[in-house]
Amino acid sequence: MPRRIVASPVVVDGRVTEEKVAELLDLEAEHPELEFKRSIDLSSTAGTVEVTKDVGAMQVSGGYILGGVDDRGRLTGEMDGHDLRPFDQASLQQKMLRYLPRPLDLRTNIVEWANPGEEETHTVVVIFVAPNPNGCAFFSAHGMYRKQDGTEKTVFRTGEVFWRDGTASTRMDQAGLEEVIERRIERAKEDWMAEQQEIRRQERQDLDAARQGRELGEGPLGSVSLDLPARELNLAVLELIRRDDPIAVQHLLNDATARSRLILESGDVEGSLSALLDRLICLAAMLLDYEQEPWFERVIDVLVEIYGMSVTEDDVRNFGYSTAINPEALAPRAWLAIIERVFALGGLAVRRKRWKDVRRLTLQLPDVVAAAGSDRNWLRHALTMASRARHFDREGKQLSLLSLARSKATELDCLRSDGVGADDDVLLTSIAEFDFLSNVAAIDGAYGLRPGRVYYSNFARFYQQRIQPIANRLLTDTEMRAAMFTRDDAELAAALQDIGKRAQQEGWRYDGFAGWEGTPVGEFIDQHCEPEGQ
Known about the structure:
Elements: H1 18-25, E1 34-37, H2 45-58, E2 63-67, H3 89-96, E3 106-114, E4 121-129, E5 143-146, E6 152-156, E7 162-165, E8 168-171, H4 174-210, H5 230-242, H6 246-266, H7 269-289, H8 293-307, H9 313-321, H10 330-351, H11 355-362, H12 367-370, H13 378-388, E9 393-394, E10 397-398, H14 401-411, H15 426-445, H16 468-474, H17 478-484, H18 489-507, H19 520-528
Parallel strand pairs: 1-2
Antiparallel strand pairs: 2-4, 3-4, 5-6, 7-8, 9-10
């Protein structure tokens, strides 16, 4: 079994928004990637040196520092009224560079927040520390200050390296060194792969010249393979489609299916299968961009086929009866790997306004799973099974599937082919919009079943403003409405009402979805639904 790294509940994605603050405070405890400080005083040498120590330590894996918060994640109010100008991103970085070398990637924000159940808000300082590309940072100057008793305290010295040992920022030891080495090895692997891809690209250019400009698509069957880098694979497939060579494209997809089966037999979900799924989802994204519907559908069919490979009907039934699944079980790991990519692709489909494809990405389920009769689409099925296998459980907290999808969209350029940046907040918003629209399509596609069995409102824990515009648009955009929901207004109102109730139950603890009241959707529900209790 390939080595599996235990994930942290802290998603180190670089965001410093109010929404991110809510996510971090909900963890209610410090982690290697999360430091809570009751107060941060940058007006004193002592305060500056102490926070520099944490910034230096966090450059191993990246993380967040929150000022004005106690070790249980409750606001202290001790940052209220402080001069916050030193926490400007440029100012803070300049202070840190007195002790730390470049590169140093920091992002900051100041938010006003309230403890759960309280109305009074307090100031919270948010500092994001990006991982150092060199693996760690050597302090470039002594960090010293004079204590109140007159003695001098040395926190760190020139040339020392700190890391996060649990929730403490400490001098590097053997375990810390091993973590740095492991991260450097992983980065070296990525660099080696990039180098090999460049070598192959140059070789193909030389081959093209030798063949007097013949296109790669004119080569023998199998020349276009999954071993090509994603961008070159996409261009080659596009050329095959342009030349009307369906056999070569089908050969590629058949190879993807055969490889997936062998990979699943080996159990390497996090390595080989993930790499293959990245190729397929990038291929699907390219076909969506160029409106190649038949081939887009075929790639989705391949993903559905892979989804069903790891189980028998008996396995599906046993998983369905279980309230807890072994986290090492193969199928839920594979299902989650597929679906987090589907959600990321769904965000692109929303941004491209490809409403039929949003529905298509929702209403899929392999026959082996459908035969059990308990599920109607793979989005809800994968979420349920991965949750039972505790794949979202990070030390007692639940990580959102949408956060995983956003990380995948950030990682793969092909899922941002419309020019959206890796750090652009639109990325998460579009994935949340896909989630909402998939709820609507799921209810429509499983008409007659209890709605709660066919969807889950992942969007609810994020700010309602992310999905409210797309929900309003559903009521007026005839093309979107026709793709998402084929029934009458009364049934749509009932569906939106059910989604709203469930989302409100999920969203209250995250300061997320609050309900449809006062929105066009709420008015639509009032107009077409009987008042509750009648």
